[in-house]
Amino acid sequence: MSKKPQSQYCMDAKKSMDSPRLQASLHSLQNRFGKGAMALWAEMDDQDMRRRVKKSRMKNLEYLDILLAELAKNVRTRGGHVHFAETAQDAIDYTLDVARKNEVKRVVKGKSMLSMEIAIDPALQEAGIEVVETDLGEYIIQLAGDKPSHIIAPCIHMDRSRIGELFAEKLGIDYTDDPPSLTAAARKALREKLLSADMGLTGCNLACAATGHISLVSNEGNIRMSTTMPPVHVALMGMERIVATLDEHRETVQLLTRGAALQKLSTYVSFVGGPSSDDDPDGSKEFHLVIIDNGRSKILADPEFREVLACIRCGACLNICPVYGRIGGHAYNSPYCGPIGAVVTPLLDGINKHADLCKGETLCGACKDICPVQIDLPRMLAALRQKLAYGSDRWNTRQHNPLEVYAFTLWRLIVCWSPLYRTGLKIARLCQRPFVEKNRMIKRMAGVASGWTDGRDLPPIAKKTFDEIWQEKHATPLPKLPVATKEDNNA
Amino acid sequence: MPGKTVSLFIQCLVDTMFPETGEAMISVFDRLGVAYDYPPGQTCCGQPAFNSGYSRDAAAAAKHFIDIFEAAAVIVCPSGSCVHMVRHHYPELFADDPAMHSRALAIGAKTFEFTQYLVDELAIHDVGAQFPGTVTYHDSCHLNRGLGIADQPRTLLKNVRGLELIEMRDSDTCCGFGGTFSVNYPEISVAMVDEKVDNILATGAGTVTGCDISCLMNILGRLRRRGEDVQVLHIAQILAGDKGEKR
Question: Is A452 within 8 Å of B221 when comparing Cβ atoms?
């Protein structure tokens, strides 16, 4: 509770809140997709579907080792390669090795948050390989040298005039802010890259263990081209993104596209299960599936946080979160922003390092309501705060704020012993006197409390508390309930 | 009215800063003939500590609460978030202590938010109140999303004579209070309450109401700072027919 110097999170948040353009974009995004998803869930005929898919997600986490072995076996049977990468570096090394062996000069990418998480682009570029994003939003971000600010709509923070200027500068076209013209320009530039790429690098929305396929959803067709045109396809898969059967896949992907874009199904759903063959000539000559842990096993092993691995990365929680709606994605300083980012980023990258993400929400619960698989993110945010409050060996977390620890210890003494609580109130009421203004409001306070009064008035402690009024009016006490003894209060 | 004696659980903010809300709740009960008592020694349900991650300190407050209220027949509180705390988080706090866990579950099962108790438990839709004027209603998050209470307060408001309910845009969007969040991240919090205030002002209503004083305190604080004089009343004050804002 002590007032600290402004953190990066607060400064980035402020920057976003000061941008009317971004505020307008976020507003219309949330108005359309947040409200849209809530309406979809309410109207859906099959009201049990979300609960059912959540159950299957949790069950699959229980049997993750078996399912991954089954997936790997089936991919390998079809001639694909499977590599289990324990760390980001493992995954990068493996991919670089594949690139080297195939003399790759140019990589075209399908949109992948995991590729950002493991920071593979800089590693490829350092090896002299050109990396080109093919998702329109990600392509714009890449041209601008910027970072995505939304899981599904990465350039939500840019408007068409900014994109027009960018394209004029980078693609050498005449300035226009007409979306179809801009899209056509990107399409032309990307076609050349897609046709000449040596490797396609994608993520993996879901993998089906029973059939040994991964699936990728998209609306632009860029994923299909990235996975079929270059001779080599490397797919990066978070190890939790697995379903057991095609039936489960069907339901899960429907929730994914509904949550992400209010679509019953995306325009494209690409299934990839191995390299092309004589009887199935479409596709890459080589297929590599890199199944990445990078901290997920640790989450899996903790019953308190396992649920977050049920996430299907639709981004719906961003579209309703009132905090994300004000501060945008950049303040989260992570590939994963919004409520899901606030839980998963600290778990993957350090709870102390991302303390602001753990604490910077109101726990309003909107993210839980909109989540297609009903993940209880507020519960996990509170659990993360517990790690910060008391420290945690398991999560290698130290106490975040020793002063706050003392403050709550004192608070505990006060609320557990009502005479002290009542006396404290009387003292506080005396102390507040000089601050109470004519309209019976406090307008300025010092220290921590200035956080309130910098932007809001505060009502003072009343002349008489309810307790005091009650004692006066009910001089003859009503039959009393058993009262706690002092010993009880020391628990 | 026959029925159980209600034990009043007066949220700490109501007790200390908005006692008129507690008094209004009592006068509604008086009008309806509901018997009540006020278990002494009550302080805070522990929510501030819980939401800040201090679950052990919250558990101590929870135990204090349970000790005080355990003998009550039914517990009624003019705050959704406190009821959410008691009903949903108390059992979590004692997950590893079977005896306390079952005590927590038992307390949770008989703890109700004020409007929920009137409508769902007593089947009262009209408390016989009068309140001339236009009113808009804010859905507090823990009340609405945590306890599923949204229709009950509206039912009661619609049956108040002279009252015209005007729904605001995004009434169920968080006001930005969030306990210590409001002082730890004041700029984000104020940006959120600003949108709430804009939506309130857009209704043109003379009064904004809700079931949680913490959200209302946040809204009140921002309204006054912006120089707006929209009246802010807890729903109990409207149902009591008490239209005078005391501050």
Answer: yes
Convert A95-104 to b/e letters by CB count within 10 Å (16 or more is b).
Answer: bbebbeebeb
Terminal CA-CA length for chain A: 24
Give tens-digit pLDDT for A104-156.
Answer: 999 999 999 999 999 999 999 999 999 999 999 999 999 999 999 999 999 99
Residue A239 scores a pLDDT above 90: yes
Indicate whether B91 and B169 sit together in one domain: no
Q: Does residue B111 sit in the same domain as residue B134? A: no
Domain assignment present for B246: no
Which CATH class for the A44-297 domain?
alpha beta
* CB proximity B64 to A under 8 Å: yes
Mutation choice for A interface testing from B4, B64, B192 by most A CBs within 10 A:
B64
- Residue A267: pLDDT over 90: yes
Closest chain A residue to the Cα of B146, Cα to Cα: A365
CB-based contact A400:A355 (threshold 8 Å):
yes
Counting one residue from chain A and one from chain B, the pairs whose CB atoms sit within 8 A come to: 224
Instruction: Report the range out of A276-280, A311-315, A471-475 with the highest average pLDDT.
Output: A311-315
Same structural domain, B224 and B131: yes
CA distance A31 to chain B (A): 10
Separation in Å, CA A423 to CA A326, A418, A419, A430, B39 = 40, 8, 6, 11, 18
One domain for residues B94 and B187: no
Domain count, chain B: 2
Q: Is the pLDDT of residue A96 over 70?
A: yes
B230 in the same domain as B140: yes
CB-CB under 8 Å, B42 with A418: yes
Whether residue B82 lies inside any domain: the answer is yes
B155 and B110 both lie in a single domain: no
Closest Cα of chain A to B194: distance in Å? 10
Q: Which residue from B23, B44, B191 is facing A326, i.e. has the nearest CB?
A: B191
pTM comes to: 0.94
Instruction: State the Cα–Cα distance between residues B31 and B12, nearest whole angstrom.
Output: 25
H/E run at residue A291: strand A286-292
**Residue A478 pLDDT grade (very low, low, confident, very high; cuts 50, 70, 90):** low
Which residue range is the domain that position B66 belongs to? 6-120
Over residues A242-259, mean pLDDT: 98
Of A366, A440, A441, the CB nearest to B174: A366
Q: Using CB atoms, pick whichever of A359, A456, A462 lies closest to residue B225.
A: A456
Taking CA–CA distances from B44, the nearest residue in chain A reads A415
CATH code for position B199: 3.40.50.11810
Q: Are residues B60 and B39 in the same domain?
A: yes
In a domain, B244, yes or no: no
- Asked if A457 lies within 8 A of B220 by C-beta distance, the reply is yes
The minimal CB distance from B183 to the residues A386, A418, A451 is found for A451
Q: What are the structural domain ranges in chain A?
A: 44-297, 416-489
Residue A371 has pLDDT above 80, yes or no: yes
Supply the pLDDT for residue A281: 86
Q: Retrieve residue B61's tokens.
A: 């407050």
Between CA A165 and CA A156 the distance in angstroms is 16
Are B121 and B112 a contacting pair, CB within 8 Å? Answer: yes
Are B55 and B116 in a shared domain? yes
Q: Sorting pLDDT into bands at 50, 70 and 90, what band is B247? A: very low
- Is B41 inside any structural domain? yes
Condensed to tens digits (0 to 9), the pLDDT of residues A453-468 reads: 999 999 999 999 999 9
Q: What tens digit of pLDDT does each residue of A61-92 get?
A: 999 999 999 999 999 999 999 999 999 999 99
Would you give the distance in Å from CA B196 to the centre of its chain?
Answer: 18
Residue of B nearest to A410 (CA): B57
Alpha carbon distance A93, A412 (integer Å): 52
Number of H helices, E strands in chain A: 24, 10
* Domain finish residue from B76, B103, B120: B120
